[in-house]
Amino acid sequence: MLNRQGRPSQPGEAAVAAHPTFTGNRALQQEEPLIFEIGRPETTGVDVDEPAPFEPRLGGLERTDGVGLPGLSEPEAMRHYVRLSQKNYGIDTGLFPLGSCTMKHNPRLNERMARLPGFADVHPLQPFSTVQGAFELMDTLAAWLLELTGMQAVAMSPKAGAHGELCGMMAIKAAIAAKGEAATRRVVLVPDSAHGTNPATAALIGFTVRPVPARPDGTVDPAAVQAAIGPDVAAIMLTNPNTCGLFERDVVEIARIVHEAGAYFYADGANFNAIVGKARPGDLGVDAMHINLHKTFSTPHGGGGPGSGPVVLSDRLAAFAPVPFVVRDGERFRLVEDEADAARQGARPFGRLTAFHGQMGMFVRAMAYMLSHGADGMKQASEDAVLNANYVRACLADLMSLPFGNRPCMHEVLFDDAWLKDTGVTTLDFAKAMIDEGYHPMTVYFPLVVHGAMLVEPTESESKASLDLFIATLRDLAMAVRRGDVERFTGAPYHAPRRRLDETRAARQPVLRWTPPEPIREAAE
User: Fold this and answer.
1) Which residue stretches belong to region Disordered (predicted)?
2) In this predicted structure, what is the pLDDT of residue 7?
3) What is d(CA 214, CA 193) in angstroms, rounded to the nearest whole number?
4) How far apart are the C-alpha atoms of 19 and 24, rounded to whole Å?
């Protein structure tokens, strides 16, 4: 039996039921139990000598029984994790269309550079004399970031986007305190189209969040900012391009309104991949912006890391960047690690954000990406990312609804669920059906400014052939919806290692401990 592309189809539920296997495996799709089910706590793959007598120093909190970790032989451990890896979807598997995440290809050259011993083996407590190359790379990377953004200073220590937001907003808070306005400026303006971390960050450090509504075209109206601004406002947090995939065309006017009121302009830099080499945030009036090195400059994120979120600062905030930071003394580099030393450099840091400086591997990967692309290459990457998103938009606009009209977008295109109304198929159903077709779903139900959002960001990594197959797949799914083939969606995914899970229950009632099942008793003869 052939599928729509003329290739042999995958076995469906009926075929699987008709041809069960003893192991539960389906040829190369192998069923893999938990490591606790196949491991043996009483064994280990290494020999560990009994420790010499010692006096515990845990104040009576030392462990009194075994850890209970499963022991495996090396072949067992290798097979277990290789089989699990085959159940994962990643950017090396196929197109990863997560909107607002910029899951681009990670060039292997970057990985080769990050694994050079001088970078891979560096330790944060090494003497400065032994890490001059690492310092020089950080200084060079910082200079490139300042050139790309048109800003005055950069804090390299934040570990990821939300951490960078925290850094930028703490610098703003310190600047407000330095002006003696800490008691009066307690409000942060956050547009409805902002990333969810924006209001959370503002609230975390003691600000009150005041929302700014989006106008019908999905962008922020300067008049709405003017209506919300006042002497109590500390800053605005705005994403540009915004989370609807649209460039805020009135950003300069918004910055003017904010600055005239004595407030600061924080820009969320998660979507920087759309404008690198095309527009500099500093030229638009931005005072602080985090940059996701793990998005814009490759190394797709996920699974908790790795990440890096440097924060660029305008001349209004440059003095308040946190320690540590790199300075050049003649031909040598060193870290400024305390406020007294920073004061001698003319700085007024708000403090130390993190114990050590940052993710060295991320710095190396980002620098390798920048040097290999060059200024013209990074500009072309932004242009190609925008082109690819608009190609997806143009090819699907006749079947899937666009909440803000069929007009050019930036690096990502936003669909809503209006086209699914009264079909019996939801945004979640459509996303699950994409899994059966071999694609990771796009970002769904975000941003919240539209109902049933589907946010697609193809990035510049994808060729036209790759996009054509992705578009054809979504068109086929959309046509199936129109034909009323509801079962294809409501029961999906059919071909994944696990069927659809109750994700809400899993989030609210997570099972964090494996409990051995009760032994099965054989009936007496």
Assistant:
1) 43-67
2) 42
3) 7
4) 11
**Paired sense of beta strands 233-239 and 264-268, if any:** parallel
CA distance 167 to 76: 44
Alpha helix (H) residue ranges in 417-498:
427-436, 464-483, 487-490
pLDDT at 293: 93
Among 202, 268, 204, smallest CA distance to 235 is for 202
First-to-final CA distance of the chain: 48
Q: In what order do the strands lie in the sheet with 413-415?
A: 413-415, 454-456, 443-444
Give Cα 184 distance to the centre of its chain: 34
The answer to whether 289 touches 168, Cβ cutoff 8 Å, is: yes
Task: List CB contacts of 23: < 8 A, sequence separation 6 or more.
Answer: 30, 31
Structural domains in the chain, sorted by start: 109-367 (3.40.640.10), 379-498 (3.90.1150.10)
Rounded Cα gap, residues 109 and 369, in angstroms: 8
What is the b/e burial string over 338-349, where b = at least 16 CB atoms within 10 angstroms of the residue's CB? eeebbeeeebbb
Amino acid (1-letter code) at residue 48: V
pTM score: 0.90
Least confident segment among 135-149, 165-179, 299-313, 443-457: 299-313
